[in-house]
Design brief:
The protein has 83 residues and is mostly helical. The chain contains 4 helices and 2 strands; from the N terminus they run ββαααα. The protein has one domain. It has a two-stranded antiparallel sheet with strand order 1-2. The termini are far apart.
């Protein structure tokens, strides 16, 4: 199914790019911009972005690496050097 008609990107293209990125680097954060870049394309009008992201979320390899989870909570406990 075509997800982005401006750049002719299908759901299979998105899933293949995510799978390739995850296999290449298991700790990478996968974003829509990185998927476009992996496909050698760039976002045009942005009208497909909600469908593009929904398609990405269906991929089992789109998890956040465990060592990068809860970083925000860890930062909140620090006081930016203040006592």
């Amino acid at each position: 199914m075509i997800v982005c008609s401006c750049q002719n990107i299908t759901d299979r293209d998105i899933h293949a790019a995510i799978d390739w990125m995850r296999a290449a680097d298991s700790a990478t954060i996968i974003t829509p911009g990185r998927v476009y870049h992996a496909l050698g394309k760039s976002a045009d009008c942005g009208g497909c972005m909600s469908h593009f992201v929904a398609t990405m979320r269906k991929n089992d390899n789109l998890h956040v690496p465990s060592e990068l989870r809860n970083l925000r909570k860890a930062k909140e406990n620090r006081h930016e050097g203040q006592r």
